Structures are given as C-alpha cells and as structure tokens.
Amino acid sequence: MTRSDHTFQHVADFDWFAELSSDAANELQKACLRRKFYPGEPVVHRSDDTRDLYLICSGMLFAAFGTEDGREVLFSRMGPGRVFGELSAIDGKPRSLDVYVASQGATEILVMPQAVFLNAMETQITLQRAVTRSLVAYVRDISERFSQLTTFSVKERVCALILRTALEQGRFREGAELDQMPTHAEIGNAIGANREAVSRAMSSLTRNGIIKAQRKRVTLVKPQALLSQ
Question: What's the helix, strand, coil split of the chain in %, to 5?
C-alpha cells in the first residue's frame, strides 16, 4: 500500500483512495483527524476497543504482539503510505496487535472514523476492490510467514526478509543499499528466531560476499545468491 518517493498528506495520496473522485476524497479528508505521535508512544493497544482507520503520513511504526512471558514479537514495520486498522474497522472486534512509534521524530497520522470508512466502502467500488486486494495480500503474507517458520532455516528466513525488503524498496540489484533495516533483535522477532541466530546468519552472508551489513543498512553484493541460500 505504499509508493516510494511520494508525499502523503491527503487521503487521495494513499493507494486505497487514489481512484476516488476529487469530491469523494475531499469529503473523506474533512472527516479525518490529523494527529501526531512521538517516539515510543502507542497508537493502538492490543485488545482495545477503538475501531478507526489509520493512514500514516510520515514516520515509522512497529506492529507487535506481546507474549505471556513478557517478550515482544515484531509483526511488521509500517511507514508512510501504509493504512492499518481495517480489520477492527470492518469486523468490529478488538485490535490484535500493539502499534507504537518506532521513528526518532514525530509520526503524523490521519485518523478516519469507522463509520466514515464503512460508508465509503459501501458506496465506492474502487475502494472495495483496493481493500479486498490488500486483505488478500495480507492473508498471503501470513501464509508465507507460517510456511517459512515451519520449513526454512534461520538463514533462509533472514534471506527471505532481505529479499522482501529489497523488492518493497525497488532495490533488488547489485550494489543497492537497503535503508532503515531492522536491528538483529527486530529481525529475530519478525522471523521467529533469537538475535544470536540472526547475527550468525548475517555474518555468514557477509563472509560469503553476498551482502555487506552495517547498522540498519544492508548493501546487496550478490542479490541473486540470496535466492539459493
């Protein structure tokens, strides 16, 4: 749901709403509340009863799941152009994840009331199609992650995460730099492994000349080799 090198300030800037008429998009814009959140601040809590839709204009968010033993499992990173909260908005059930600010500066978000979103869903066929495609992609992503957890080694899961990041950033090529990479602990949370195992996998890829790794940055030296690890 994101577009690179793009500014997100108006509802129409987001892929879900890009095909709406100017009048329809402006009406939705008027109904939204623009809010700022700051580093570490929660946007939604798991199991809370908010049902609004959130459109990220700037900054970076983490969506995470807290386990009973106090650990935090990182589910996803969400940046500008991302829309979230649609599941609770559609089915009316509590939130399933905690979402909080991960970036250093302020994060700006458009908050669209549930009733406004649902009404738009009922009246705008282009929005219905966009949301449906997004939900299908979400299910596919969950299926892929489950498959990786049950069949892939830690090294293979690390390679898959790097590949997915490169494709999302449009940088799957030799010499490309992937910015804002998660830490080893965050990668571990995302792929179901501990930090030490992720560090070993990253070190192995570096020794083999496949990547160059720096803090929150990875350079693709032999990107095709990631497919065969």
Answer: 45, 20, 35
Single out the residue of 128, 112, 138 nearest to residue 53, CA to CA.
112
Q: How many CB atoms neighbour CB 173 within 10 A?
A: 10
- CA neighbours closer than 13 Å in the CB half-sphere of residue 19: 9
Q: Are strands 33-37 and 107-112 parallel, antiparallel or unpaired?
A: antiparallel
Residue owning tokens 């992650």: 145
What does the DSSP 8-state code read for residue 208? T
Distances (CA, A) of 207 to 167, 204, 212: 23, 5, 9
DSSP 8-state secondary structure symbol assigned to residue 105: S
Per-residue pLDDT of 150-201, as tens digits, reads: 778 889 889 988 988 887 777 888 999 998 888 898 888 778 788 899 999 9
- Asked whether the beta carbons of 176 and 224 are under 8 A apart, the reply is no
Structure tokens at 229: 């690890």
pTM of the model: 0.70
> Angle of helix 195-207 relative to helix 154-168, nearest 10 degrees?
70
Sign of the alpha-carbon torsion through 187, 191, 197, 201: negative
- Give ∠ CA 66-72-75 in degrees, rounded to 5: 90
Burial 46-81 (b: 16+ CB within 10 A, else e): eeeeebbbbbbbbbbbbbbeeeeeeeeebbbbbbbb
Q: How many residues does the structure list for the chain?
A: 229
Per-residue CA distances from 109 to 15, 36, 84, 149, 223 (Å): 15, 6, 11, 32, 34
